[in-house]
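Worked example 2:
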Amino acid sequence: MLRRTSGSVVCPSCGSLVGVNDERCYTCGRANPGMWGFAPLLRQFGNDLGFVPLVTGACGVMFVLSLLVSMRLGGSPLNAIMSMNGYTLEALGASGALPVFGYGRWWTVLSATWLHAGFLHILFNMMALRNIGYGTVSIVGPGRTIIIYVISGACGFLLSSAAYVYLPALPLLHGARLTVGASASIFGLVGALVHYGRRSGSRMLYTQMMQWALIMFLYSLFMPGIDNWAHAGGFAGGYLTSSFLNPLTREKGDHLLIAAVLLLLSALSIVVSIYQSWGRIVG
Protein backbone atom coordinates (compact mmCIF):
# COMPACT_ATOMS: atom_id res chain seq x y z
CA MET A 1 0.00 0.00 0.00
CA LEU A 2 1.50 3.33 -1.07
CA ARG A 3 -0.63 5.52 1.17
CA ARG A 4 -1.84 4.78 4.71
CA THR A 5 -5.22 6.20 5.64
CA SER A 6 -5.50 5.00 9.24
CA GLY A 7 -3.39 4.03 12.23
CA SER A 8 -0.23 5.59 13.65
CA VAL A 9 2.98 6.75 11.98
CA VAL A 10 6.27 8.21 13.16
CA CYS A 11 6.55 11.99 13.04
CA PRO A 12 9.28 12.89 10.49
CA SER A 13 10.54 15.72 12.70
CA CYS A 14 10.76 14.29 16.23
CA GLY A 15 10.13 10.53 15.90
CA SER A 16 7.02 10.49 18.11
CA LEU A 17 4.01 8.35 17.26
CA VAL A 18 1.14 10.36 15.78
CA GLY A 19 -2.09 9.56 14.01
CA VAL A 20 -1.76 9.42 10.26
CA ASN A 21 -4.52 12.03 9.90
CA ASP A 22 -3.45 14.31 12.77
CA GLU A 23 -3.20 17.95 11.79
CA ARG A 24 -0.29 18.59 14.15
CA CYS A 25 2.28 16.59 16.13
CA TYR A 26 1.51 16.95 19.86
CA THR A 27 5.21 16.63 20.76
CA CYS A 28 7.02 19.01 18.38
CA GLY A 29 4.13 20.93 16.83
CA ARG A 30 4.91 19.92 13.23
CA ALA A 31 1.97 20.46 10.90
CA ASN A 32 0.62 17.41 9.04
CA PRO A 33 3.13 14.92 10.49
CA GLY A 34 1.53 12.05 8.55
CA MET A 35 2.41 13.81 5.27
CA TRP A 36 -0.94 12.95 3.68
CA GLY A 37 -0.44 9.28 4.56
CA PHE A 38 2.86 8.95 2.69
CA ALA A 39 5.14 9.26 5.73
CA PRO A 40 5.60 5.46 6.18
CA LEU A 41 6.48 5.04 2.51
CA LEU A 42 8.97 7.91 2.57
CA ARG A 43 10.61 6.63 5.74
CA GLN A 44 11.01 3.16 4.26
CA PHE A 45 12.27 4.72 1.05
CA GLY A 46 14.89 6.59 3.02
CA ASN A 47 16.00 3.69 5.18
CA ASP A 48 16.29 1.24 2.28
CA LEU A 49 17.20 3.70 -0.45
CA GLY A 50 20.54 2.23 -1.50
CA PHE A 51 21.93 5.54 -2.78
CA VAL A 52 25.01 4.13 -4.52
CA PRO A 53 23.16 1.28 -6.30
CA LEU A 54 20.42 3.73 -7.29
CA VAL A 55 22.83 6.19 -8.92
CA THR A 56 24.99 3.46 -10.43
CA GLY A 57 21.96 1.70 -11.87
CA ALA A 58 20.45 4.89 -13.29
CA CYS A 59 23.75 5.94 -14.89
CA GLY A 60 24.18 2.43 -16.27
CA VAL A 61 20.72 2.46 -17.83
CA MET A 62 21.39 5.87 -19.40
CA PHE A 63 24.73 4.65 -20.74
CA VAL A 64 23.09 1.67 -22.42
CA LEU A 65 20.40 3.98 -23.80
CA SER A 66 23.16 6.25 -25.13
CA LEU A 67 24.71 3.30 -26.93
CA LEU A 68 21.37 2.36 -28.50
CA VAL A 69 20.69 5.93 -29.62
CA SER A 70 24.22 6.23 -31.02
CA MET A 71 23.76 3.06 -33.07
CA ARG A 72 20.33 4.27 -34.17
CA LEU A 73 22.00 7.41 -35.49
CA GLY A 74 24.52 5.35 -37.42
CA GLY A 75 27.42 5.33 -34.98
CA SER A 76 29.78 2.42 -34.39
CA PRO A 77 29.10 0.51 -31.12
CA LEU A 78 32.84 0.30 -30.34
CA ASN A 79 33.37 4.01 -30.94
CA ALA A 80 30.33 4.82 -28.80
CA ILE A 81 31.61 2.69 -25.92
CA MET A 82 34.96 4.47 -25.92
CA SER A 83 33.75 7.98 -26.74
CA MET A 84 30.11 8.90 -27.15
CA ASN A 85 29.45 11.48 -29.84
CA GLY A 86 28.11 14.85 -28.78
CA TYR A 87 25.03 14.55 -30.99
CA THR A 88 23.82 11.53 -29.00
CA LEU A 89 24.57 13.11 -25.62
CA GLU A 90 22.83 16.32 -26.61
CA ALA A 91 19.72 14.36 -27.63
CA LEU A 92 19.56 12.68 -24.20
CA GLY A 93 20.10 15.79 -22.08
CA ALA A 94 23.74 16.91 -22.09
CA SER A 95 24.30 20.32 -20.54
CA GLY A 96 26.76 23.08 -21.34
CA ALA A 97 26.80 26.50 -22.93
CA LEU A 98 25.21 25.30 -26.19
CA PRO A 99 22.13 23.58 -24.69
CA VAL A 100 21.63 26.05 -21.81
CA PHE A 101 22.35 29.40 -23.46
CA GLY A 102 22.15 28.46 -27.13
CA TYR A 103 18.97 26.37 -27.13
CA GLY A 104 17.43 27.49 -23.83
CA ARG A 105 17.36 23.91 -22.48
CA TRP A 106 17.97 25.02 -18.90
CA TRP A 107 16.69 21.72 -17.46
CA THR A 108 19.77 19.91 -18.76
CA VAL A 109 21.66 20.98 -15.63
CA LEU A 110 19.62 18.20 -13.98
CA SER A 111 19.82 15.56 -16.70
CA ALA A 112 23.53 15.78 -17.57
CA THR A 113 24.76 14.24 -14.32
CA TRP A 114 23.17 10.90 -15.33
CA LEU A 115 24.98 10.76 -18.70
CA HIS A 116 28.56 9.76 -19.51
CA ALA A 117 30.75 10.19 -22.55
CA GLY A 118 32.33 6.73 -22.59
CA PHE A 119 33.00 3.51 -20.73
CA LEU A 120 36.08 4.78 -18.88
CA HIS A 121 34.20 7.94 -17.96
CA ILE A 122 31.36 6.09 -16.27
CA LEU A 123 33.70 3.49 -14.77
CA PHE A 124 35.92 6.02 -12.97
CA ASN A 125 32.96 8.11 -11.82
CA MET A 126 31.10 5.11 -10.40
CA MET A 127 34.26 3.93 -8.64
CA ALA A 128 34.63 7.38 -7.05
CA LEU A 129 30.94 7.36 -6.11
CA ARG A 130 31.32 3.98 -4.44
CA ASN A 131 34.27 5.26 -2.41
CA ILE A 132 32.47 8.32 -1.07
CA GLY A 133 28.75 7.63 -1.45
CA TYR A 134 28.28 5.10 1.34
CA GLY A 135 30.14 7.30 3.82
CA THR A 136 28.10 10.34 2.90
CA VAL A 137 24.82 8.48 3.41
CA SER A 138 25.92 7.24 6.83
CA ILE A 139 26.94 10.72 7.93
CA VAL A 140 24.25 13.05 6.56
CA GLY A 141 21.44 10.58 5.73
CA PRO A 142 20.11 9.25 2.40
CA GLY A 143 17.61 12.05 1.81
CA ARG A 144 20.13 14.83 2.30
CA THR A 145 22.71 12.92 0.26
CA ILE A 146 20.37 12.84 -2.74
CA ILE A 147 19.55 16.54 -2.33
CA ILE A 148 23.24 17.42 -2.23
CA TYR A 149 24.02 15.12 -5.16
CA VAL A 150 21.37 16.58 -7.48
CA ILE A 151 21.83 20.22 -6.53
CA SER A 152 25.62 19.99 -6.73
CA GLY A 153 25.44 18.62 -10.25
CA ALA A 154 23.11 21.42 -11.29
CA CYS A 155 25.41 24.04 -9.75
CA GLY A 156 28.43 22.56 -11.50
CA PHE A 157 26.87 22.46 -14.95
CA LEU A 158 25.37 25.92 -14.58
CA LEU A 159 28.75 27.38 -13.60
CA SER A 160 30.52 25.58 -16.44
CA SER A 161 27.96 26.80 -18.98
CA ALA A 162 28.19 30.38 -17.71
CA ALA A 163 32.00 30.26 -17.62
CA TYR A 164 32.11 29.23 -21.29
CA VAL A 165 29.96 32.20 -22.28
CA TYR A 166 31.06 34.94 -19.90
CA LEU A 167 34.60 34.14 -18.70
CA PRO A 168 37.85 34.05 -20.69
CA ALA A 169 39.26 30.59 -21.35
CA LEU A 170 42.36 29.90 -19.25
CA PRO A 171 44.99 27.30 -20.27
CA LEU A 172 43.81 24.70 -17.74
CA LEU A 173 40.42 26.07 -16.72
CA HIS A 174 37.60 26.77 -19.12
CA GLY A 175 33.88 26.27 -19.37
CA ALA A 176 32.24 23.63 -21.56
CA ARG A 177 30.22 23.92 -24.72
CA LEU A 178 28.80 20.45 -24.04
CA THR A 179 29.26 18.58 -20.75
CA VAL A 180 28.05 15.43 -18.96
CA GLY A 181 29.01 13.18 -16.07
CA ALA A 182 28.53 12.51 -12.38
CA SER A 183 31.81 14.08 -11.30
CA ALA A 184 30.28 17.48 -10.48
CA SER A 185 27.84 15.77 -8.12
CA ILE A 186 30.63 13.64 -6.64
CA PHE A 187 32.64 16.78 -5.96
CA GLY A 188 29.48 18.07 -4.27
CA LEU A 189 29.49 15.11 -1.89
CA VAL A 190 33.13 15.89 -1.09
CA GLY A 191 32.20 19.52 -0.44
CA ALA A 192 29.39 18.42 1.87
CA LEU A 193 31.75 16.23 3.89
CA VAL A 194 34.25 19.08 4.11
CA HIS A 195 31.49 21.22 5.58
CA TYR A 196 30.44 18.46 7.97
CA GLY A 197 34.01 17.91 9.12
CA ARG A 198 34.43 21.63 9.75
CA ARG A 199 31.12 22.03 11.60
CA SER A 200 31.41 18.85 13.64
CA GLY A 201 35.01 19.44 14.63
CA SER A 202 36.19 16.23 12.96
CA ARG A 203 39.58 17.42 11.85
CA MET A 204 40.44 14.02 10.39
CA LEU A 205 37.39 14.01 8.08
CA TYR A 206 37.91 17.65 7.14
CA THR A 207 41.58 17.13 6.30
CA GLN A 208 40.98 13.89 4.42
CA MET A 209 38.21 15.38 2.26
CA MET A 210 40.18 18.56 1.56
CA GLN A 211 43.16 16.48 0.47
CA TRP A 212 40.95 14.31 -1.71
CA ALA A 213 39.33 17.36 -3.32
CA LEU A 214 42.69 18.99 -3.97
CA ILE A 215 44.21 15.84 -5.45
CA MET A 216 41.21 15.19 -7.71
CA PHE A 217 41.09 18.81 -8.85
CA LEU A 218 44.81 19.03 -9.60
CA TYR A 219 44.73 15.68 -11.38
CA SER A 220 41.82 16.72 -13.54
CA LEU A 221 43.53 19.99 -14.51
CA PHE A 222 46.04 18.07 -16.57
CA MET A 223 43.62 15.55 -18.07
CA PRO A 224 42.18 16.42 -21.50
CA GLY A 225 38.45 16.96 -21.78
CA ILE A 226 37.81 17.41 -18.05
CA ASP A 227 35.23 20.04 -17.06
CA ASN A 228 36.97 21.67 -14.11
CA TRP A 229 34.48 24.51 -13.79
CA ALA A 230 31.78 21.89 -13.24
CA HIS A 231 33.95 20.29 -10.54
CA ALA A 232 34.45 23.63 -8.81
CA GLY A 233 30.76 24.48 -9.02
CA GLY A 234 29.79 21.04 -7.74
CA PHE A 235 32.12 21.34 -4.75
CA ALA A 236 30.78 24.80 -3.88
CA GLY A 237 27.19 23.63 -4.38
CA GLY A 238 27.70 20.66 -2.09
CA TYR A 239 29.31 22.76 0.63
CA LEU A 240 26.57 25.42 0.53
CA THR A 241 23.74 22.89 0.35
CA SER A 242 25.16 21.05 3.34
CA SER A 243 25.35 24.36 5.21
CA PHE A 244 21.69 25.00 4.49
CA LEU A 245 20.55 21.47 5.43
CA ASN A 246 22.60 21.41 8.68
CA PRO A 247 23.77 17.76 8.68
CA LEU A 248 24.46 17.90 12.43
CA THR A 249 20.71 17.59 13.02
CA ARG A 250 18.53 14.54 12.55
CA GLU A 251 17.33 13.89 9.02
CA LYS A 252 13.61 14.58 8.63
CA GLY A 253 10.86 13.29 6.41
CA ASP A 254 10.95 16.63 4.61
CA HIS A 255 14.42 15.77 3.33
CA LEU A 256 13.17 12.49 1.89
CA LEU A 257 10.25 14.26 0.24
CA ILE A 258 12.53 16.88 -1.33
CA ALA A 259 14.92 14.13 -2.45
CA ALA A 260 12.06 12.26 -4.14
CA VAL A 261 10.95 15.46 -5.90
CA LEU A 262 14.48 16.15 -7.14
CA LEU A 263 14.81 12.61 -8.49
CA LEU A 264 11.46 13.03 -10.24
CA LEU A 265 12.57 16.35 -11.74
CA SER A 266 15.81 14.73 -12.92
CA ALA A 267 13.85 11.96 -14.64
CA LEU A 268 11.50 14.51 -16.21
CA SER A 269 14.45 16.53 -17.49
CA ILE A 270 15.71 13.46 -19.35
CA VAL A 271 12.23 12.72 -20.72
CA VAL A 272 11.83 16.30 -21.97
CA SER A 273 15.25 16.20 -23.65
CA ILE A 274 14.42 12.93 -25.41
CA TYR A 275 10.99 14.23 -26.39
CA GLN A 276 12.48 17.32 -28.01
CA SER A 277 15.01 15.19 -29.89
CA TRP A 278 12.65 12.34 -30.76
CA GLY A 279 12.30 13.33 -34.39
CA ARG A 280 16.05 13.21 -34.90
CA ILE A 281 16.41 9.92 -33.02
CA VAL A 282 13.76 7.97 -34.93
CA GLY A 283 14.02 9.87 -38.20
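Residues 8-46 form one domain. The chain has a mean pLDDT of 86.
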